[in-house]
Structures are given as structure tokens and as C-alpha cells.
Amino acid sequence: MQAQNRPVLRGRIYRSDISSRYMDLSATATVILGFLSRGEMSGYDIKSEVDTSTRFFWAASYGQIYPELKRLKTAGLIEEVDGPQGDRRRTACRITESGRVALQDWLSDGSWTPELRHEGLLKVFFSDATSKDRRRSLMEDIARHHRGQLAELRELAETEGAVETGSSPELILRFGLDFQKWIVEWWEGEIARTDGGGGKDGQPHV
Hints:
Blueprint: H1 15-21, H2 27-36, E1 41-42, H3 43-51, H4 62-75, E2 78-81, E3 92-95, H5 97-108, H6 119-125, H7 132-158, H8 168-194
Antiparallel strand pairs: 1-3, 2-3
Helix pairs in contact: 3-4, 6-7, 7-8
């Protein structure tokens, strides 16, 4: 009996094929794949997770998430899962096997680009063009902003069950707490130096 012509090894995935095809993943795509690797989520769910975790160091808007979900589905890295999501019917997505391979390749490729975009720092950088009082006001604004960030992270850290002890998110949460505390202390110290003095006992307050 003559063998029928049919695709050979259909569905088998080779890491080299995935990495070469999907090496142009955007930052938002990696955020989506990362969250979907933890479970099925809708675009709304992903945005909610971003707002209480990665936004402190890597934000993503609805305008970035939804187009990227469509692109990832077209690429076969995620797929839709029909079913109710909470009080409203939302289309959830789950990561595919090829999506997991692409995520693993991104995690292990050894390359990353540190990026700091801070408009407050940009304004202070050019503040020689304005008055010293305005520059001091900018410094106070930055310190106030980071005090707020520190308060949010402390609240998150104190919320029972919000972050699993010993997990990767907890590691980043502790980094964020120390980082924001350092920023606040640094700016308060510079403000005190600008004023020619210091806080109570010459020390900044956090």
C-alpha cells in the first residue's frame, strides 16, 4: 500500500526555529508572555497585573497590550480561550508551547538594555535655564513623587499574600523598596544641601 502524502512531524517545535522566527519580540510582548506563563488572562487582567507590579519599572498601556496580543496570536505564541472572565465576558488568552519556547529564549539570551526615562531628571538637568527657587521646587517634586512610590511598595509588601515569599516578584519588590528609599534619601539630602543645612540632626527623612 502506497504511503499517503502528509506533513511530517507536524506540531513538533524546535528551539532554533522559534528563536530565529520570534527574536524580534517587543518589550510589551515579553511582558504579556511572562504573565501568561503563569496562567490564562485577558488583556484587562494583564493590565491589572502590570499596574500592581511591573509598572514600577516597566509599564504597559492598553494601547500597547491589545495590539501586541493580536500580533502574538497571529504568530502562534498565544491562543484565545473562550469562557467568562469575572462579571464581564472577556476573551482570555493562554501561552502556547511555541510561546513558552520564545519566552525561555528571551530569558536566556544574555542581552538586555537598561533604560531610565525620568522627565523630572530631564528638567533638573536643564534647570540652569530657570531660577534656583524653581530648581529647588523641581527637586521637591521628585522627592515627593518617590515618597509616593515608596509608600505604594510598602503597602504592597504588607498586603498578605500579595507576593509569594522567595519568588522572583518578591526579589524585585525588595529591590524596589531599597531603590525608592535610596532615591528619597538622596534627593532630601540634596535639598538640605541646597538650603545650606539638613533635616533633623542634619539628616534627611524617609
